[in-house]
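Batch queue: ligand-bound targets. Current item pairs a single chain with flavin-adenine dinucleotide. No template structures supplied; prediction is de novo from sequence plus SMILES. Inputs echoed for audit trail.
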Amino acid sequence: MKKVVVLGAGYAGLRVVKELVKLKTDAEITLVNKNDYHYESTQLHEIAVGNKKPSDISFKITDVISKKVNFIKDEVVSIDRPKKEVHLKSGKVLNYDYLANSLGFESESFGIKGVDEYGLPLIDIETALAAKEHLENTLADYAKSGDENDLHIAVCGAGFTSIEYLGELVYRLPEFISKYNLPADKIKIYCIEAVDKILPMFTQDLSKYAVDYLEKRGVEFFVSTPIIEITKNSVKSKDKTFNANTIIWTTGVKGSHVIADSGYSQRRNRVMVKDDLSSSDDPNEFIIGDVSAVMSASGRPYPTTGQISIAQANFAAKNIDARIKGQETKKFTFKSLGTVCSLGPKNGVAEINVLGHWKLKGREVGPLKKIVNDRSVLELSNFKEMLASR
Ligand SMILES: Cc1cc2nc3c(=O)[nH]c(=O)nc-3n(C[C@H](O)[C@H](O)[C@H](O)COP(=O)(O)OP(=O)(O)OC[C@H]3O[C@@H](n4cnc5c(N)ncnc54)[C@H](O)[C@@H]3O)c2cc1C
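Prediction returned. Tokens below.
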């Protein structure tokens, strides 16, 4: 029997496995993930402020995959692609005939000094929890230290993750102020961005709505301000130093380091795939989710998102199944359903491409984000089908 190995149980990996089971693919399927749980990375900003607990956004992998799938909790160290072997941290080596590589994203430092030491990224449950603990401990410290930098929070980057983080932060701030008896007038929240745009994926009016919403709640934006260094208590640009004892690093992500370590031709650990999502040097290897780059009709790669990861996974599973059966693979096509950016649990901005093109802002977007998240959990776990396949 052919062996299919799936690396990573994020949106992409979990969906590939689910689809392969649904297709009744004639293969032995193995899923490898470094934790025994899946987490919804689209909600990490909520963990990082404490508006949600890890158990709210994660579930045990073996609870949601078919018993036909062999699950291995281990870390992938590298892939010996000529030998078709996956090397794991435990020393175990897995052989495969077909590979779905969906190892996901890591924080990108862009080589800026001090980022790895002092920036707090939001890339998984551990880092989001570390950011939350750092934030709360630092605010609590003010009572003893009297150091105003304990009340200063710098958020680096003004893209999607930064804005969603800021939305959660300003929502919870009144609670922190009363819990730690903080002087509200001394709290400073900086958002520092290299380019001149905030939330570049949205139209100008929606991005302005988000900025106004956050500014009214105390966020100060600094655009066209490339960061050149981070220290323990400051963010430095060429002309300005922002003093802050909490520094959130959400400037962007890259693919898993395993990509570069395994000798792929890559840029920021993303591999440009063929139109059927296979790698250009092995037709039986599919690269999907945040470790892949997929060219769009505009001639630029699609932005990496959970949404496209799931769409890719559906395609990749069908193409793996086709290869095993000796059939032609199909070209990947994608139409974005739109983007929803929350501003805390009760507000946000959205552009939706369903039954036309809709631009939304305000309180109706809060529940919309929740619906999208709940749907994703339900679809990934799909309890009914899961039980049926056991
Ligand atoms: C705060 C935030 C909000 C976001 N909001 C949205 C949104 O609203 N909509 C949207 O579409 N996208 C959103 N995104 C982007 C989205 O989360 C990613 O594009 C998506 O998670 C990519 O899915 P993936 O399966 O490729 O990777 P991941 O979700 O990163 O999953 C990778 C999996 O592989 C595991 N893994 C990693 N390395 C190893 C290893 N070496 N060995 C074994 N296992 C490993 C990880 O533990 C993880 O389980 C958001 C991202 C963030 C950070």
